[in-house]
Design brief:
This protein has 301 residues and is mainly alpha-helical. Helix content is 81%, strand content 0%.
Length: 301
């Protein structure tokens, strides 16, 4: 298996697990506040991340690389951006259905390209830009306003939340790639594991302090719902590990572009779990997204 094939497989697996995490968090919103459901993603992922680092260290017979100031700067920036992105996405579900809420946040791909160029001086080929453009047209079709929601309300709230969530996810993706690449040594799995371990611990501590101060009852409810919360944390932690590993091998914009396959998974989840319905042009949109992903994989092969 080549590294090209590996980063694609990791991206698709991460997208599937991320969609599973979103499904579980949407269920949690029936029992927790928006911030309480958001925190499940981080609190229960931190122990898993530490175990992954320990396991890799034992298997490789070597200590993990020692982070420096640059690592901590990018990792903290990414951690904060991911918290904001997750909270915005969960709030977005209150205005649109599950699939469309996920789709609107996928503008992160285009925003990742811009940030990757600004922060890391990374560029992509014209063919890759074309492939991303095809997927973007599909996203636009999928995010057209529903008849039950006025155009003004869609513009004021849904579109804004989707773009803001996408921007935060893009900042997190590029920051995590920069943090992982800054580590002095270790293979791509170890770099991804160390980044994930620090970030999830940072996020878990931050969310626990926040909930204790602002919504103290939510911590008790979070641990009372430990079965779903733990599953959401495990799914989210494994998804992040997949993203981090893929982004250590490949540019964040290309990883996130392939990760748009999550839209397919979100449609399946909407139909199977939430009994939500879709319009004909949404099917065209999902076909365009799939075509764009296949074109993108072809340009990097």
């Amino acid at each position: 298996m080549t590294l090209m094939e590996l980063w694609v497989i990791l991206s698709i697996a991460a997208a599937f697990l991320q969609n599973l995490r979103s499904v579980l968090q949407k269920h949690l919103k029936a029992r927790l506040s928006n911030w309480g459901a958001t925190s499940a993603r981080f609190v229960f992922a931190a122990p898993l991340a530490a175990l992954i680092v320990a396991g890799l260290s034992v298997l490789r017979g070597a200590a993990p690389p020692t982070p420096d100031f640059i690592f901590f700067t990018y990792a903290c920036l990414g951690g904060l951006a991911q918290i904001a992105a997750t909270a915005l996405l969960l709030h977005l579900f209150s205005f649109r259905n599950f699939a469309v809420g996920t789709i609107l946040s996928k503008t992160e791909t285009v925003q990742s390209a811009i940030l990757g160029f600004v922060l890391l001086s990374e560029t992509i080929s014209g063919r890759a830009i074309f492939a991303i453009g095809v997927s973007l047209i599909g996203l636009i079709l999928l995010s057209l306003p529903a008849g039950a929601i006025s155009r003004r309300n869609w513009i004021d709230k849904t579109a804004f939340l989707g773009l803001a969530s996408g921007a935060c996810f893009a900042i997190a993706a590029v920051s995590y790639r920069a943090a992982s690449l800054s580590l002095p040594g270790g293979d791509f799995l170890m770099r991804a594991a160390v980044t994930l371990s620090f970030v999830t611990l940072f996020q878990a501590l931050l969310m626990c302090v926040f909930l204790a101060l602002r919504e103290p009852g939510q911590l008790r409810r979070l641990f009372s719902a430990w079965r779903i919360s733990a599953l959401a944390g495990i799914a989210g932690g494994l998804a992040s590990f997949g993203w981090f590993a893929a982004m250590t091998l490949q540019k964040a914009v290309l990883v996130k572009a392939v990760g748009q396959i999550e839209v397919v998974f979100s449609f399946a989840a909407s139909l199977l779990f939430f009994r939500e319905t879709f319009r004909p042009y949404e099917i065209i949109g999902i076909l365009l997204i799939t075509a764009g992903i296949l074109l993108l994989i072809g340009t990097t092969s």
